Amino acid sequence: MGLAQRAVKGGLYLTVNYFTLFILGFVSNIILARLLRPEHYGIFALGLFFFDIVQRIRLFGFKSALIHKKEPSPEEISTHFLLHLIFSAVVILLCLLVSPLISIKYDRAIVEVFLVLALICLFDNEGLGATPSALLEKELRYREFSLINFFWHSSSRRLRL
C-alpha cells in the first residue's frame, strides 16, 4: 500500500476515532449529569476545569519533535519518554501545590477530584503513553493508535461514572 493510501486510511481512522470519542464524551456527560445531583456535577466540572488549566504544561510539542525526527535513536526515544514522565510528575506536583489555594475558596471535594485527575493524567497519551503513541503516529499506524486511544478514553469515562 502506498504512502498516500496509508495517509488517507489513517486520516479516516483518526476522524472516526475523534467523532466517536466526542459522542462518547457527550453521552457520558449526560449520564453523569443525570446520575449526580447538580452540586456534585458542579464539583466534578470545577475539578476538571482546574485540572485542564494545570495540565497544559505537558503540551510542549515533544511528541511532534519525535514524530518528525527521521530515524530517532533509542537514546532519543528514552529521552522523550523521560521528558513526558517528568512533565507529568510536574503537573502532579503543581496540582498538589495549588490544591490548598483551591480549597480556600472551594469545597474540599473539588480538590479531591482535581488530584485524582492529576494522578490519572500520568497514564494518558500525553503522559507515559506519549512515546508509544508518537511512534505509532510516526509509522502511520493510525488504526492501532485509534484503538488504543478509544479504549483509554472509554475506560477512563467508565471510571468517571
Short key terms for the protein model shown above:
7 helices, cell membrane, membrane, transmembrane, 81% helix, transmembrane helix, Polysaccharide biosynthesis protein C-terminal domain-containing protein, 161 residues, mainly alpha
Give a short summary of the structure.
Helices cover 81% and strands 0% of the residues. The chain has seven helices and no strands.
Number of helices: 7
User: Rg to the nearest angstrom?
Assistant: 18 Å
Q: What helical percentage do the residues reach?
A: over 70%
Q: Strand fraction band?
A: under 5%
Structural class: mainly alpha
Rounded to the nearest angstrom, the distance between the terminal CA atoms is: 41 Å
The number of strands is 0
Account of the protein in words:
There is one protein chain. The chain is mostly helical. The chain has one domain (3-160). It is built from seven helices and no strands. α1 (3-35) runs parallel beside α7, α3 runs parallel beside α6 and α4 runs antiparallel to α5. The chain is flat, with a radius of gyration of 18 Å. The relative contact order is 0.16. The model has no long low-confidence stretch (mean pLDDT 81).
Please outline the helices and strands:
Elements: H1 3-35, H2 38-54, H3 62-68, H4 74-105, H5 108-120, H6 130-138, H7 142-160
Main location: membrane
Organism: Candidatus Hakubella thermalkaliphila
Subcellular location: Cell membrane
